[in-house]
Amino acid sequence: MIPLIATTLLLASSALSVGAHSGARKSLSFGPKHPTAKLNVPSGRVDAASFGLGKRAHCGHEYDPKEVAASFVQSLYGSEAEFRIRADSYIDDHTGVSHIYVRQLVNGVEVMDGDINVNVRDGQVISYGDSFYRGSAPTYAMDPSSLLEPAHDQAHHCEALSSYLTSFLAVPSGQLTLTPDHPTPEDAEFLALLQAHNCHTASLEAGEPEQLVDPSVSALNFIVLAAPDAEVSAALKENYGAHLMTLAVIPTESLTSTAPAVEIHDMPHTTGPVKAELAYVQTPHPDEENTTVLNLAWHLTVPMEDNAYEAFMSATRANRLISVVDWVSDAYVPIPKHPKKIEPTYNIWTWGLNDPTEGNRSMVSGYDKTASPFGWHAMPSSASPYVDHSAKPKIPEEDEDPLLNFTTTWGNNVFAHENLEGRNEWEFNQRPDAGSDMVFDYEYLPKVNFTNTSPREYLNLSVTQLFYTANMIHDIYYRYGFDEKSGNFQQHNFGKGGKGSDAVICNAQDGSGYNNANFMTPPDGQNGKMRMYVWNTAKPWRDGDLEAGIVIHEYSHGLSTRLTGGPANSGCLGWGEAGGMGEGWGDFFATTIRSTSTYQDYAMGDWAANRPTGIRNYKYSLNMTVNPSTYKTLDKPGYWGVHAIGEVWAQILWIVENRLIAVHGFSDTLFPPEALANGTIPEGDFYRPAQYDAKGKRLPLIPKNGNSLAMQLVISGMKLQPCRPSFFDARDAILQADELLTGGENKCEIWKGFSERGLGPEASLKGGTPWGGGVRSDDYTLPKGVCGVDDDPEDDPEDERL
Q1: Residue 54's pLDDT is what?
Q2: Handedness of CA 454, 545, 577, 304 (dihedral sign)
Q3: Of the residues 554, 577, 657, 756, which is catalytic?
Q4: How many domains does the chain have?
Q5: pTM of the model as a whole
Q6: Which residues partner with 793 through β-bridges?
Q7: In the annotation, is 554 catalytic?
Q8: 22 lies in a domain?
Q9: Please, what's the b/e burial string for 563-589 (b: 16 or more CB within 10 A of its CB; e: otherwise)?
Q10: Of 52, 229, 650, 685, which is the most buried if we count CB atoms within 10 A?
Q11: Can you give the residue range of the structural domain that contains 80?
């Protein structure tokens, strides 16, 4: 394997990880830091007239939010700015905010990390994130069209090897690279293998223009780097030329730019064709602070058995990996007639019980009819990946798109099944079949001798529990705004926007590893995938499917990835503070959902791991002695990884939530009331009395209690924050979410929560690096004028929770 330098590449498993275990999944997540990117909240009104949008009448006398966003971007970068409004933009039904996603183009080619998310309400820009490239467009002496007809003859083969060897030994000054200054003995052996092919290996002459690397060379070199272990990497190197000669490169068209695009077939260790498209990506300028340079790159989408990579390999340096995100995180049709009412029942640990130690199983039924209109076991025929004849679907003959009712753990939101052999295939894996009475009732046998590495004796229960928990997560997140338009996971979207065909594939007792779990989140319209493992940390072994907190953590990767930067962008939470918050939100929601009105500290993964303190450094606690984490904790050794970063973020959110609970009280249920027959959501005991605007339109409902309010604000904040957010961006997005929902009445308590753990207004990060380095400073003060005269975080009324 090509050596990886710790200071240039973050090698981390994006999973709910305890440490190194047998069967651990290798994952690459790495990329440059954007010095100019941040969330911007204008201090005054920024309406259409303020940036030159003319006074033209529209239906309802309101401007199209996309038109507002486009004009606003032009006001920032000039009328000649080249960009497109992404199709995954949408209006949030909960807040009335339009989330418009803008992608930059240079020379007709996408800048894949050049994003502006513009948040618009009532014709005004209320906030925006901006990571556009600010420099001049580069020029290249090359002909991209020549790449569309690659010829894998011996001359082409030698040229590819020459390009690889030349760039392998080169380390561009001030640029990130995966190669050391001097090759190791292992690398020298590899170079000797290349030279054995009797190919010309001369370097480019000084001043000679760089040439585009063949995309198949870039893709194969990435596979060498991403190989699951050293043996596989060594085998790829040894047979490098043979692999290169067998690749089939098929020209295709980019849907978003004029750049060349190809599909590369027969790539080793992949589960499908590798897609390659020419694009730009930014890196920090080596000499100028707060400036970036553009790099021409091959944008690769690489499906592998244990990973789904979006990678950017330099298009002029065959070995240079600029950035990579692993979508796996260690996760229009007429509406058919309503099915005949079938009430499935499940003998499981009900919602709110984290694991088998917290209570007994019970028979439950029901689902949230607002979130899952047809229940958990039905979908239109057009939305099903295949018709499982063993599931005995009932097909109304008069329906053009018949509704299929399944008697297994197969439905519109979730496909749950065993995966004991750890295979990539899943459609025909074993699922419990409840028959016509739809009673999922199976024995729990934790004390019998397990077969091989899995507690197979209660496999049907495991699959049923996973199916139940994942569907409950779908439903509750839906009620807080993770709906079809914002990119949730459903096969059929009921004509409500977004892309369907992306229910979550849930593997119970996955045989590809143990003592872990992970979640793959591709862009909207592609299935999410959750893999749950058995844990051998206790005797008898424990099944992660039975610990709800682990399932919630993994599913929450799908929530945060789809909401941050838009449903079509899965690359916003790959590394550093952004990647860490992707882990932290999962812990926060898992802890919030299991918490009760009687306060206590909570550990993460404590049952499965058989550790009272769980799999994090500390329990989540209001007590500084129990959990001393502050923002500056991220500077300590051991806090460079995303899980450790996420632990600090989750702890801060836990403080914020409990400050809201201290003021607003605690709700015993986090599920809002279901909609009435006319579609209206009643206030019940869950929401405050409804408020109406001057036109009589009901404003977004406000959760009455602190824990439900915290859920809403955190989820709404994800939609407002920019791609690749910092802690500061996510904090400010939550504050703006409260401003939009309540008029900012909770600003004081939210600031107190953040400031209590060092994330006050003067907290800072200097010298930040892509992998989370730099020097941080805590700030325990409050913004002037927010909380009263003194603005002193110590001036709080006594409270039993704080």
Answers
A1: 55
A2: positive
A3: 554
A4: 4
A5: 0.82
A6: none
A7: yes
A8: no
A9: bbbbbbbbbbbbbbbbbbbbbbbbbbb
A10: 650
A11: 39-130
